[in-house]
Amino acid sequence: MNESTKPKLEDQSQPQQERLFYLEFRLYFLGHANRSDLQRRFGLKESSASRDIALYKKLAPDNVVYDYGIKSYIPQESFVPLYSYTATQVLTALTYGFGDDYAGPKFPEIATESPAQSPLPFISTLAAVTRAIHKQQALSVSYISSDHGERVQAMVPHALINSGTRWLVRGYDRSTDRFDDFVINRIVKVLGSSDAPQAHELKESDNDWNQISSLTLVPHPALSHPEAVAQEYGMHDGVLKMTCRSALRDYMLSQWNVDLSPTPSAKAGDFQLWLKP
Predict the structure, then answer these.
(1) pLDDT digit string (tens) for 120-129?
(2) Which fold has domain 123-206?
(3) Taking the alpha carbons of 103, 105, 109, 110 in that order, is the dihedral positive or negative?
C-alpha cells in the first residue's frame, strides 16, 4: 500500500477509535477477535464489523492473521499495539468489563489517590498471561523466586489475584504438581506455550479456589472503642460475616490486619479485627 494512501490512526473518528481499540484489546490480552465480538459490543451489522477489521489490518498489516480453525483473527509474533495501555486500565477492563471511551484521555472527576496501590504488572507479561488464561493454555516462563532464584517454570494459569500488595496469577505448578500463586512481576520472560493442559491442571480441579470459606469478624476486644470499627465495617450487632475463596483467605486477613489468635491478644496493637474461631 502506498504510504500516501495508507490510513492514519489519528485521522479516525472517536467512535471508530473506540471500535479499533476494543478489537486490539481482545487481540492483545485475550488472544483472538472476530466480527461477532464487535457486533455484540457495539451493535454493529456484519458489514460494518468487517470494515472495522479491514481498517485495522490496513493500519497494522503485520499484527494479525486469520485462524481458520477457530474462525477468528489472532495476533502474529510481529504484533505491535497501535494504542498505549496502562496496567490499571487493562486490569479494570479485565476485572469489571469494558467501559466507554477507553481510547480517549482519562481525567479524574474528583481528587482520588490510592497510596497503597499494588505494584502494577508489566503490560507485555500481563498480556501473555491473560491470553493463556482466556485460551486455557499452559505457559513456559522464566520465573525468579526468593527461594530458588531464576529458573524455567511451567504453569497453567487460570485467574488473576490482587492481594492488596501485589498482582499474582493463580495456576497449576507443574514443578510441584499443585496449584499455587505466582507474582506476575517475577516472571522475567515468557518463553512460549507449553504442552496442552490436562484435566487435573484446570481451574475446575483447584479445590482451594473452588471452596468457599465462611469468616466471622468482630472488633478486636482490646480496643477502647470497638463501636468505631463496627461502624467502619458496617457490622450488624458488632459482627461481620463474610465469605471468600479458601485460596484468598490468608491474603484478605493479612490485608485487614486481623488477629488470628484463638484467644485475642491483650493489646490490640495494629489489630482492629479478631477472627472468631
Answers:
(1) 999 999 999 9
(2) SH3 type barrels. (2.30.30)
(3) positive
